């Protein structure tokens, strides 16, 4: 175990066993974020756990390194007193994972909030844009360009102030001095990088010459403000390519009744030439932005002390979330994130059981513990069936009745040798760099077939056996390990855990 207390050599080093892990707060493309409680202080955090193997496989080392570097810079108390960022308290790692201990954002993200409200009133949009400007100014003064500012990456703290997150795409530009445009910086070859960010918020200069600069974040602020007032971002189309075309032609409209001062402000940020954007020529902060009429009533220095205004649509329904979570979230939990603990948190009990070697002599666990499967199958659940596979006394009759029912949907029935389908669902099966959507069909036998659903062709089977092991990674991703091969699978509907439970239940039924 190795740990690195952030910037504070006197702070004792922490590891996973210093925390009790609670529920999953969310999944990223290569991380899972858990609610966690520091055993010593009782303080709650969000701990982002990135699996090393996955990072290496997806070649995301740079992304993770950059995120840590920027978070450390922004969390450095000596350099920053700005409250509007997710703070990194410490990092550590063990043989399988990297851990980032972060401020817990208790009120979700700005996108979800905005979707609930549909639109923000001008006062609310003005307040959040002011916080965003204040945070971005601070970040740029430290030489950090975010490059992926969007409502999903703006989290909300207990009092609903903003916490900017997701610095994996960020760039650190050399300083001092603070340069208005990083195109003049000496970052050399790193400047011409591949496309970063999200289509709707990406600035034209990133699309044309792949050069980002602090002004690229100013463009994104213009897009986010437009979205707060209108409900949708300014540049929208069916494909990314079409969105890019619109951005390059500055093709967007203000609807009737769009507040005129906000319109003037946005029009000064959504300017094709990055050097002409409001603020791009400022040095040492963004006075020209802060002095715009849109912020007439805002005192930037005391923003954090104010209570953020509520959108009128949410005024009666939105409660502030209390800082501490429900104590029952941590009950019975042991410190750390061992395999056993992980399976408990993901709602499984697979690792509580004996290892493969001792399985045969182990007493049969109660069926009830593994029978609560909510199947994604289109076959109606049998009335008297306990669990996925445990049929009662009149087993034969029930199976026959279910098979009869199944025959009425012959497209799958014939592909699985007329065996009773226990569970089915569309799953993306990854091999190398490519992922293909397959219909997975788990049947009596046991067999796990996968079919190309476009051509209705049986593509293969995952070999079932005593040692088959389904390993959940998060709600969407899971792996199936067989002696000869590991299958990398993603259920975009989020039923990965159900699949793992089902596979384990069937494995036990046949082989234990
Ligand atoms: P990707 O890494 O694929 O771009 P992401 O940025 O959403 O995705 P993470 O930063 O790993 O990935 O976060 C995953 C999810 O976890 C988020 O969408 C959010 O719901 C939740 N989350 C992340 N950080 C926090 C936090 N500090 N407090 C509360 N929830 C968080």
Automatic annotation (TrEMBL):
UniProt xrefs under Pfam families: PH_3, Pkinase
Domain spans labelled Protein kinase: 19-295
Record Gene3D superfamilies: Phosphorylase Kinase, domain 1, Pleckstrin-homology domain (PH domain)/Phosphotyrosine-binding domain (PTB), Transferase(Phosphotransferase) domain 1
Enzyme class: transferase
Biased composition (Basic and acidic residues): 353-367
Single GO MF descriptor: protein serine/threonine kinase activity
The enzyme's E.C. designation: 2.7.11.1
Chain sites annotated for binding ATP: 48
Reaction equation(s) it catalyzes: L-seryl-[protein] + ATP = O-phospho-L-seryl-[protein] + ADP + H(+); L-threonyl-[protein] + ATP = O-phospho-L-threonyl-[protein] + ADP + H(+)
Subcellular compartments: Cytoplasm
GO cellular component: cytoplasm
Family from the record: Belongs to the protein kinase superfamily. AGC Ser/Thr protein kinase family. PDPK1 subfamily.
Protein name in the entry: 3-phosphoinositide-dependent protein kinase 1
Organism field: Daphnia pulex (Water flea)
């Amino acid at each position: 175990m190795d740990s690195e207390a952030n910037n504070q050599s006197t702070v004792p080093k922490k590891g996973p066993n210093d925390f009790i892990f609670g529920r999953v707060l969310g999944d990223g493309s290569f991380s899972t974020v858990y609610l966690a409680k520091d055993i010593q202080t009782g303080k709650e955090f969000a701990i982002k756990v990135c699996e090393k193997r996955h990072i290496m496989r997806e070649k995301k080392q740079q992304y993770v390194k950059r995120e840590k570097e920027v978070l450390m810079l922004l969390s450095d108390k000596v350099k920053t007193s700005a409250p509007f960022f997710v703070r990194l308290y410490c990092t550590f790692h063990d043989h399988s994972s990297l851990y980032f201990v972060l401020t817990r954002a208790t009120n979700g993200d700005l996108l979800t909030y905005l979707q609930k409200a549909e639109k923000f009133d001008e006062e609310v949009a003005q307040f959040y844009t002011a916080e965003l400007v204040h945070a971005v100014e601070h970040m740029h003064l430290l030489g950090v360009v975010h490059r992926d500012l969007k409502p999903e990456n703006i989290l909300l703290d207990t009092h609903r102030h903003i916490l900017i997150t997701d610095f994996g795409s960020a760039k650190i530009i050399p300083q001092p001095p603070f340069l208005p445009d990083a195109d003049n910086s000496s970052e050399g070859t790193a400047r011409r990088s591949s496309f970063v960010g999200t289509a709707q918020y990406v600035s034209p200069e990133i699309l044309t010459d792949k050069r980002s600069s602090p002004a690229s974040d100013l463009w994104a602020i213009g897009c986010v403000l437009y979205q707060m007032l209108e409900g949708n971002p300014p540049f929208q189309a069916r494909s990314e390519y079409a969105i890019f075309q619109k951005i390059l032609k500055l093709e967007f409209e203000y609807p009737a009744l769009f507040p005129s001062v906000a319109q003037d402000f946005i029009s000064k940020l959504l300017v094709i030439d990055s050097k002409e954007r409001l603020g791009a020529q400022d040095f040492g902060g963004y006075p020209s932005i802060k002095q715009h009429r849109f912020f007439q009533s805002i005192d930037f220095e005391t923003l954090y002390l104010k209570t953020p205004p509520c959108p009128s649509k949410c005024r009666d329904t939105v409660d502030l979330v209390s800082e501490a979570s429900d104590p029952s979230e941590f009950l019975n939990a042991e410190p750390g994130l061992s395999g056993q603990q992980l399976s408990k948190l993901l709602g499984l009990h697979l690792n509580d059981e004996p290892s493969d070697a001792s399985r045969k002599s182990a007493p049969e666990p109660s069926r009830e513990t593994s029978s609560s499967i909510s199947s994604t199958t289109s076959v109606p659940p049998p009335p008297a069936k306990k669990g996925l596979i445990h049929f009662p006394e009149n087993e034969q009759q029930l199976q026959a009745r279910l098979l009869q029912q199944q025959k009425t949907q012959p497209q799958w029935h014939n592909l699985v040798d007329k065996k009773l389908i226990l569970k089915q669902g569309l799953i993306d099966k990854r091999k190398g760099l490519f992922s293909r959507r397959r219909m997975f069909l788990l049947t009596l036998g046991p067999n796990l077939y996968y079919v190309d659903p476009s051509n209705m062709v049986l593509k293969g089977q995952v070999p079932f056996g005593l040692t088959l092991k389904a390993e959940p990674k998060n709600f969407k991703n899971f792996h199936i390990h067989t002696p000869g091969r590991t299958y990398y699978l993603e259920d975009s509907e989020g039923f990965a855990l159900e699949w793992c439970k089902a596979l384990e239940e069937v494995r036990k039924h046949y082989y234990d």
